[in-house]
Write a structure and sequence with these properties.
The complex is a heterodimer of chains A (about 110) and B (about 375).
Chain A lengths: L4 E9 L2 H4 L4 E6 L2 E6 L11 E5 L2 E6 L1 H13 L3 H5 L2 H10 L14
Antiparallel strand pairs in A: 1-2, 1-4, 2-3, 4-5
Chain B lengths: L1 H8 L1 H13 L4 E7 H9 L2 H4 L4 E8 L1 H4 L2 H11 L4 E5 L13 H6 L3 E4 L3 H10 L4 E8 L4 H13 L5 E8 L1 H10 L7 E5 H7 L5 H7 L3 E4 L3 H17 L4 E3 L11 H10 E8 L3 E10 L8 H5 L14 H5 L23 H4 L4 H7 L6 H10 L4
Parallel strand pairs in B: 1-2, 1-7, 3-4, 3-5, 5-6, 7-8, 8-9
Antiparallel strand pairs in B: 6-11, 10-11
Helix pairs in contact in B: 2-13, 8-9, 9-14
The chains are: A alpha+beta (about 110), B alpha/beta (about 375).
Chain lengths: ~110, ~375
C-alpha cells in the first residue's frame, strides 16, 4: 500500500464516472497496465515516467531511475503484491494465515 | 536469496559499508521510520553490513500495524452489514480484529472487495446506487492524496452512498513522540522517501533543530538505504543535526503542492490512537467539517465495540523500537505469520513478519557472529 511504483504514461484517458472530472491516464508498470489519476501532476505527458501511490501519480521521474527502481522492487518481490488485482489479492489472503486468531485462544497453528 | 548476495557483494555497496566503518568512532542508533524500509533492510541484510555499534532501530511506519484494533473491529462490523460493499487495499484483508478479519467476513457472505485505487470505489458507488460503498482509508501521507480525492469527487458527484472509514496517521508527530519518550535511544532518523514525495520535507527542519537530531530523507532500494545510513553517521560524527535529502531523484523540498492543497481542504489534524503505542496528540487526519457527511463512522454509528489484544503480544514495544522482534517471548512460537498475535506479524511491512520471513530468530549481535563464521557463502 505504501510503496510508490514508477511507471510510464501510455495514454491520457477519460475512463469512468470519475474520469470525466479528473485527468486520468493508463500507466504501464513493467508490463502491468493500470488506470491512474494524473490530476496531481499536470506537467506529466504521454511518454513520461511518474511514481504512483495507490492509483495516483505524485511526481515525475526520469526513465533510468524508473527502470532501475522497477527492477529493484521486482527483485525484492514487492511489485506483484502492490499491483495485485482483486482476485490475486484474495488468493494471497487465502494462502496466508488460515486462522489469524488474535489472542491465540483458538489453539490452531 | 540471489538478489541479496548480488547486492552485498556489489562494489558500490561494499565501498559505502567500508566508508561507514571508517567514519564511525562510537556506537549510534538510527531509526528507519518506514515499514517498507525495514523490509528492505532485513531482506538485503543491510544491518549486518554495518560496523559493530551502528544499530538500526525499526520504527512504527507500517500503517497496517498501527491501525487501531477498534477501527479494525468497526471495519468488520460495517463490512458484515447487508447492502454494504466494503472496499479496501489488499493489505488489510488479514489484519486480525478482536474476532476475525475482513477475509473471514467475506467468507461469511460480506461483500468485501479489494481495489487498486480509492477511485475504483467511487466508480463502484455510481454504479450501485442501492448499495452503501465504504472505503477503508488507512495509511500515512502516501495514501492520503488518493483518499482525499475519492471523497472530493464523491462530493462533486453528489454521491449519497459513498463514505470513508478514515484512520490516517502522520510521520512527523510519530517521530516527535519517539524523541520525547522516556529512555529514547534513537539518535538519527531515516525519513520515509515516499512520504516525502507527497509532503516534501519542509515540515522537518524545526524537529531537527528542537531535538538536535539528524534527519535524512531516504529511498527504499538497498543502495539508497546504505547511503542514507552513511549520511546519518557522517552528521552524527560531526555533531551536525540537519535535514538532508538523500533521495533527490524523487523528493523535493516542497513535495506535491497540489496534493497538499487538497489534503488541507479534505482533512483536519486530530489526535490518533496507534495500535500498540497509544494516543499520539495531533498525529492523524480525519475528514474536515466540509466532508464530515462522508465519514463512515458517523454514517454507521457502530457502538458496543470492546477490543481485546493478546496479552503475549509485544508489538507496541517493537513499533516503538524498544525491542527487536526476536526479543519477544512469543516470536516464532505462539506468534507466526500463520498464527499472528499482532499486526506486526501480519503485514508484509511489519517488522515481526520481516524478521520471521527472513529467518531472523537471533538478535543482530548473534547474527553478526554467525555471519562471520559463514562468510564466503
Amino acid at each position: 500500500m505504501c510503496l510508490a511504483i514508477p511507471g510510464k504514461v501510455e495514454a491520457i484517458t477519460t475512463d469512468g464516472p470519475t474520469g470525466r472530472l479528473v485527468r486520468m491516464g493508463r500507466v504501464n508498470f513493467g508490463g502491468v497496465v493500470k488506470s491512474v489519476c494524473l490530476d496531481y501532476v499536470p506537467e506529466v505527458e504521454v511518454g513520461d515516467y511518474t511514481i504512483v501511490h495507490v492509483g495516483f501519480a505524485l511526481s515525475r521521474i526520469d526513465e533510468e531511475t524508473a527502470e532501475k527502481t522497477l527492477a529493484d522492487f521486482r527483485a525484492m518481490g514487492v511489485l506483484d503484491e502492490e499491483l495485485a488485482g482483486e482476485e490475486e489479492a484474495f488468493a494471497r489472503a487465502a494462502k496466508a494465515p488460515p486462522s489469524p486468531c488474535p489472542d491465540g485462544s483458538c489453539g490452531s497453528q | 536469496m540471489k538478489y541479496l548476495t548480488e547486492f552485498r557483494n556489489s562494489e558500490i555497496a561494499q565501498r559505502i559499508a567500508r566508508e561507514i566503518a571508517q567514519i564511525a568512532t562510537r556506537p549510534w542508533k538510527i531509526m528507519e521510520v518506514c515499514g517498507g524500509q525495514t523490509h528492505s533492510i532485513i531482506k538485503n541484510g543491510i544491518d549486518q553490513m554495518l560496523p559493530p555499534g551502528i544499530e538500526m532501530i525499526h520504527g512504527p511506519g507500517c500503517p497496517v500495524c498501527v491501525t487501531p484494533l477498534e477501527l479494525i473491529d468497526k471495519a468488520l462490523a460495517i463490512a458484515a452489514q447487508p447492502d454494504v460493499i466494503f472496499c479496501s487495499f489488499g493489505d488489510m484483508l488479514r489484519v486480525p480484529g478482536t474476532e476475525g478479519d475482513l477475509f473471514q467476513v467475506k467468507g461469511r457472505g460480506g461483500d468485501v472487495r479489494v481495489v487498486y485505487s480509492p477511485l475504483d470505489a467511487v466508480d463502484l458507488a455510481t454504479k450501485k446506487p442501492d448499495k452503501q460503498v465504504v472505503f477503508f482509508g488507512v495509511g500515512f501521507e502516501t495514501t492520503a492524496p488518493a483518499n482525499a480525492m475519492s471523497v472530493h469527487l464523491a462530493k462533486r458527484l453528489g454521491l449519497k452512498n459513498f463514505s470513508l472509514l478514515v484512520s490516517h496517521v502522520l510521520v512527523p508527530p510519530a517521530i516527535e513522540a519517539i524523541l520525547q519518550s522516556p529512555g529514547n535511544q534513537v539518535q538519527a532518523f531515516l525519513l520515509a522517501g515516499h512520504v516525502c514525495s507527497v509532503m516534501g520535507y519542509w515540515e522537518y527542519p524545526p524537529l531537527a533543530e528542537k531535538y538536535r537530531v539528524p534527519l535524512v530523507v531516504t529511498g527504499f532500494e538497498p543502495l539508497d538505504l546504505l547511503d542514507g545510513i552513511r549520511r546519518a553517521v557522517v552528521q552524527l560524527e560531526s555533531g551536525r543535526h540537519q535535514v538532508e535529502n538523500a533521495y533527490e531523484r524523487v523528493v523535493t523540498f516542497e513535495g506535491n503542492r497540489l496534493a497538499q492543497r487538497l489534503l488541507a481542504e479534505v482533512f483536519e489534524v486530530t489526535d490518533r490512537a496507534w495500535r500498540g503505542i497509544g494516543v499520539i496528540p495531533r498525529s492523524g487526519w480525519r475528514l474536515s467539517a466540509a466532508y464530515r457527511d462522508f465519514d463512515a463512522e458517523q454514517r454507521f454509528q457502530i457502538a458496543g465495540i470492546s477490543t481485546r489484544e493478546s496479552p503475549l503480544c509485544r508489538s507496541g514495544d517493537v513499533l516503538r523500537g524498544a525491542i527487536k522482534p526476536a526479543e519477544c517471548a512469543a516470536f516464532g512460537k505462539e506468534c507466526t505469520p500463520r498464527h499472528p498475535l499482532g499486526a506486526t506479524m501480519v503485514s508484509s511491512e511489519g517488522a515481526c513478519a520481516a524478521y520471521y520471513n527472513y529467518g531472523r530468530f537471533l538478535s543482530a549481535e548473534e547474527l553478526a557472529g554467525a555471519g562471520k563464521s559463514a562468510s564466503g557463502l
